[in-house]
Specification:
Number of helices: 12
CATH superfamily of the domain at 70-231: Aldolase class I
Strand order of the largest sheet: 1-2-3-4-5-6-7-8
CATH topology of the domain at 70-231: TIM Barrel
Distance between the termini: 10 Å
Number of strands: 8
Radius of gyration: 17 Å
Structural class: alpha/beta
Strand content: 15-25%
CATH class of the domain at 70-231: Alpha Beta
Shape: globular
Length: 234
């Protein structure tokens, strides 16, 4: 058995390149997902408008999560978001590293018609890799994440993307900030290209408000069996 509580917390990641793959998966799943996430892989094949229209045809009541991780100068971002307002999307990602001015102008351009989601540190980074890549090792992932959250909140954003490992201390500092968590796996044995991962129940208990799950479901021999298992985990 599952509850609407967990169903409303899961964004199904449709990491596909063709319409046929999307149709096949969504026709298999029961109950239908409440949130559908699409990104560069699908829209680079179908186009943004075509992809959104397809999802609305297949799951009319689902929220659409457009994961573009926008990162550019403020004027470019605001103009792009003005164009997106004509689409039926509910969530749109922007990189917090774009800065306060970019985030403020993006929020203004959205006119509250879409939830802007600030991306902090990609979950494909391990903590060690992060420390040794672009930042001085003294700048721990936790410190940088909290600074990014502070920037997002100061600009007026209500949603961010962060791994479960950061959720606990983010919620301690920013209780009202909503956290979307990718890198969700049913077990910790199959991580793929993700590094900072967690299981659905654990992620929610740590403070995640929405879980992004894709590969464990669509890569399974029986996607609906895994989908039902995910829904029963909380």
């Amino acid at each position: 058995m599952y509850s609407n509580q967990i169903l409303n917390k899961i964004a199904l990641a449709l990491d596909f390149s063709t319409k046929e793959e999307v149709v096949k998966l969504l026709e298999e799943l029961n109950p239908k997902p409440k949130i559908l996430k699409i990104g560069l892989q699908l829209i680079s094949s179908l186009g943004i408008k075509e992809a959104v229209v397809l999802l609305k045809q297949l799951c009319p009541s689902a929220s659409i999560f457009l994961d573009l991780k926008l990162y550019d100068i403020p004027n470019t971002i605001s103009k792009a978001i003005e164009n997106f307002k004509n689409l039926e999307i509910d969530y749109l990602t922007v990189h917090i590293l774009g800065g306060h001015k970019m985030l403020k102008q993006a929020l203004k351009a959205s006119e509250n018609k879409v939830n802007l989601v600030g991306v902090s540190i990609l979950t494909s980074y391990s903590e060690e890799e992060f420390s040794n890549s672009f930042f001085h090792p003294a700048n721990e992932l936790k410190t940088i994440t909290l600074k990014l959250c502070e920037l997002a909140v100061s600009a007026g954003l209500n949603w961010i993307v962060a791994s479960p490992q950061e959720s606990v201390f983010i919620k301690e500092r920013f209780k009202d900030l909503k956290i979307i968590t990718p890198g969700i796996r049913l077990t910790e044995s199959n991580i793929g290209d993700q590094q900072r991962i967690d299981t659905p129940r654990s992620a929610i208990e740590k403070g995640s408000d929405m879980l992004v799950i894709g590969r464990p479901i669509y890569s399974a021999k029986n996607p609906n069996e895994i989908w039902e298992k995910v829904l029963s985990l909380y």
